[in-house]
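Take a minute with the sequence and fold tokens given here and flag any structure token that looks odd. Thanks in advance.
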Amino acid sequence: MKQILIVEDEPNMRLGLKDNLEFEGYKVAVATDGSQGLAAIESNQYHLVLLDVMLPELSGFDVCRIARERGIQTPIILLTAKGEEIDKVLGLELGADDYITKPFGLRELLARIKAVLRRGPNAKKEPVEASIGKMTVNFSSYSANVDQEQVRMSHKEFEILKYLWEHRNHTVSRYQLLEDIWGYHEQPTTRTVDNFILKLRQKVEQNPEDPQIILTVHGVGYKMLEPS
């Protein structure tokens, strides 16, 4: 049985989510503020977290950021009443796997949950290791190093790097990355992808200003070259 953690301070919303998810067959735990939520996430016993953005103690953004900095890769869906694009972009860049804007329908939420669980860390079975530029990466353990020194990377950085590696020597569009990594059918922005590519180049390229591994295909997207 999949276990879901709900971090939500509004009682009616929290109870409604809990009842509906339990009806759908999930095992559900709840936390009422950001500090409680972070402590629960650190227990690593959940398959997915529904994390409200506007929380007492710590905001959902802070909880997400701290969890990813501590190497916790549990999938996170942000629940937010904010519709501004900048908030959505910020949440994704902090390591959230998806977001859904209140008010939302149960069917939409369940579809998002199933999609994130399908592509989450627990879905990965085979270890995948690769040498990409100056970095050695293990996609199964979400670890990376350069000259035997560990490199800190976010969950999304690993996902994008793995996607480019799996499609190496082929051009992938920004829209393709957004849809396949974040699961969007209507992409809010391509700037999110560009920002992640810049971060990845800093880690894999010998000279990020003159990339030789992750190339820009102007007007389309990016291509990762396999070492010759």
